[in-house]
Amino acid sequence: MTTDMSQRPPFDVEAVRGDFPILNRPLESGRHRKGKPPAFLDSGASAQKPQCVIDREREVEEQFFANAYRGVYYFGARVDEELEATRSGIAKFIGAESTDEIIFTSGTTMSLNLVARAWGGKFLEPGDEVLITEMEHHANIVPWQMACAERGATLRWLPLTEDRRLDMSRLDEFLTPKTKMLAVTSMSNVLGTINAISELARRAHDVGSLICVDAAQSVPHRMTDASGQHNEVEPVDFLAFSGHKLYGPTGVGVLYGRRDLLCEMNQFLGGGHMISQVYRDHSTWADPPAKFEAGTLPIVQAIALGAAVEYVSGLGLDRIHAHESQLLGYAHEQLATISGLTIYGPDLEHKGAICSFTIDGAAAEDLANLLDIRGVFVRHGHHCAMPLHEVLGVQASVRASFGVYNSCSDIDRLVDGLQFALERLIVAEK
Amino acid sequence: MTIEDLIEEFDDLGDWADQCEVLIDMGRDLSNMSDNLKTEDTKVHGCQSNVWMVAEVKSEPLRIELTADSDAMLVRGLLSVVLMVYSNRSPQEILETDVRDIFSRLGLDRHLSPARKNGLSGMVTRVRAIAAEAVGLQS
């Protein structure tokens, strides 16, 4: 799968940025002084969409929209065809063995809830344990808390090291024959920490546990190999991600599940399309993926997600990774020039394109508000990771997260914006 | 400075960046609330940053005294507007005034996120409930 990078043109960030109309429009909100385009540094929350994705949504709506898996007429058949082509593109993109293992959901949150409820609801027993980690997003915490409470299972938390990586030296203490599921992020949405999923999968399987990966953050930045067929890595059992962080539309996401597990576990939402037969007193279920796709899918969004996957594949995850690593290095170097600034997370080698930080004496909310005045868009708060912020000992942080369209000039604007904010928040205090 | 002066100043400034600076200055001038008052009970929910508010009913003349605090300077500035409008006013005056109208006259409603507006509404509801109770006690 490795591509010889010398065979391909260098990553041209200006050309890539040109693909995203929203990033080329001067800000016209009345809040911003100069009509510059934004420095968009919140792709970790949701990425902007390239023109090809916007066009694809429009094309479906304008040219062949109909409900899916219901009509034999041309529009219906065309929608089915496009959805299946997307499903197959996604299967290839994340290294699934079969398209039947790709379930369309509304996003990562629904995907993880689906696993916790439909798998957990059948296979978790009192006394069993589910292992999560201290760096999880609430979407990979709360569904497991709910499943454990319902099934009488115990939720355990793998701690972090001082440099905010998973403490693998203590894994044996937490991952035991009692563990039935290890639910873990492949990349922290706050720290950027990249977790060793293959090793975690192997260790989980060694004790008879399954592994469910929250891949929302990593899928847009690094190659995913769910079944391990491309890279001879240990396969994972479930993997969830969202379309909108992958430069695709909102409202659509994916759950990858190992086929045998999808067949064995409970159904999730009941309704149309997920059944085989409905009787007055009971129903039987369709095979996966239909079993988990009750009701009308986000058809337009799902088809446009296919365009996003093609776009990202066209840029090449290897080149995206190289570009973003360079950006991250530059961001660390430049942010280090600001006194009192602390970046949370491990060294560059172990993290992806996210920088979360605090500055002594300045509230995260104030920094985000003042950056906004300069057209620099970042997120502030607990980033849906309250237990992690408790470990970090801060209530809130500012997060700058990067995507394919960001350049060093966005980071320069971030640093300038922070200096502008600090002059107002701190210097004036003296 | 009265609230009318502030409305005039904001109107003159026109620019959100400059208005922000004024709010930050006002936030800096707001007195700190003592830490022992910052409890779960005094916390205003629905705010992104921590916000605390304490309302005390004072007599002769009957009035409500407010103190409020936040981690964020800009939020302290907004709180100081709320205090200008509501603090040391009679319950009747409080019930007759909606600080949200003042925020919209200041042009601030355009710059407040729905989350912040929720926090503000939570605060207004609480102050007005205290005022209504005080009026009830009086009659």
Give the name of the CATH architecture of the largest domain in chain A. 3-Layer(aba) Sandwich
**Helix/strand order of chain A, N-terminal first:** HEHHEHEHEHEHEEEHEEHHEEHEEHEH
Instruction: List low-confidence stretches of chain B.
Output: none
Total of DSSP H or I helical runs spanning 4+ residues of chain B: 6
Which whole number gives the mean pLDDT of chain A? 95
Question: Biggest protein-protein interface?
Answer: A-B, 18 and 19 residues
Give me the Rg of chain B, rounded. Answer: 15 Å
Question: Strand content of the residues of chain B, in percent?
Answer: 5-15%
Distance between termini of chain A? 57 Å
Our Rg estimate of chain A from Cα atoms comes to: 22 Å
Largest sheet strand order of chain B:
1-2
Percentage of residues in strands of chain A: 15-25%
How many distinct folded domains of chain A?
2
In terms of topology, how is this protein built?
The complex is a heterodimer of chains A (430) and B (139).
Chain A: H1 13-18, E1 39-40, H2 51-64, H3 74-94, E2 102-105, H4 108-123, E3 129-133, H5 142-151, E4 154-158, H6 171-174, E5 179-185, H7 197-206, E6 210-214, E7 238-242, E8 253-257, H8 259-264, E9 275-278, E10 283-285, H9 299-315, H10 317-335, E11 341-344, E12 354-359, H11 364-373, E13 376-377, E14 379-381, H12 386-392, E15 397-401, H13 408-425
Parallel strand pairs in A: 1-13, 3-4, 3-5, 5-6, 6-7
Antiparallel strand pairs in A: 2-8, 7-8, 9-10, 11-12, 12-15, 14-15
Helix pairs in contact in A: 2-9, 3-9, 4-5, 10-13, 11-13
Chain B: H1 3-13, H2 16-29, E1 51-58, E2 63-70, H3 73-86, H4 91-96, H5 99-105, H6 114-138
Helix pairs in contact in B: 2-3
